[in-house]
Amino acid sequence: MNFKYKVLKVCKQSGARIGEFTTPHGVIETPVFMPVGTQATVKSLTPEDLKELNAQIILSNTYHLYLRPGDELIKNAGGLHKFMNWDKPILTDSGGFQVFSLSDFNKITEKGVEFKSHLNGAKHFFSPEKAVQVQNNLGADIIMAFDHCTGENTTHKQAKEALDLTIRWLDRCVKAHKREDQALFPIVQGNFFADLRKESLIKSLPYVKHGIAIGGLSVGEPTDVMYKMLDELKPHLPQNVPHYLMGVGRPDNLVECIIRGIDMFDCVLPTRIARNGTTFTSVGKVVIKNAKHKQDFTTLDENCDCYTCKNFTKAYLRHLMVTKEILGAKLLSIHNLRFLTKLTEDIKKAIWEDRLLDFKDEFYLKYSSKNS
Fold this sequence. Notes:
Shape: globular
Number of strands: 17
Number of helices: 15
Radius of gyration: 20 Å
């Protein structure tokens, strides 16, 4: 079999779990954070950098790769793994979220979505079948069904219509998907309505073969709303597959959501804020450009084992960012991604020891949401 999921441990204190997800390009131990390589690259980092910080799987973006260099070109190159020289698992999204985020430039119908390229305004059309075909060409281990994502200020009626359309599209995606070496995940929608979230999950279950994703959260809503939706879904999630929460990557979110049954995460946040000079640490965010770090010769985080923290001081990192040296963005990206991969490792250790709720309390004793 190309895909297999096995639960290794369930925390007696929290109910959170450790799992092993076998894919064609390797075994992923969950919970796992996936760095985002939107354009077939995690910005500024090499594959070796990613392996050094213990990234098990990365995500790439179907919409962007379809526009350039093109999915056919990547197929001719031998698939995404060969094209970007990454021999571990890859996940691709369906392009649905990008279509949602470019809502001023799209037209949604039963057939699919007509949208304009953000690059040159050219018109394109994605049907569920097209989204699957593009992902088949890219060749990722895990691919997503094409969905209709909705955001804030959506009515219950509109969210219900989007949910039903997502299920009809899911059925078409499953019928169009022919590659046994790619796992297709349905995506649960339903906006911020508990009844619709549960309905979406139940209607998706017949299509769940290797895993299930939860979309349409972390799109601007308050954090407690996201947690409420996950609390509603948790009792109904299938236990024999991994659960993927799309677009979530704040340290406190990872702790809270793993307790709520989530196994897989991705987010552009850690590398995006790194390029702007902000880093995660065990005591909260550090804005390295702040003047108080000019003569600070301590490491970013004494609890971090990344290359950056082992070799450089805050004063040096501030100098790099102030002078806009490329190395600064690279070093901070390495740190932020390692911070999250190490956090998941620490969480797994707590799960093994049946003490994740204690770990959560210890985490919040030090961690602050305020910048320093």
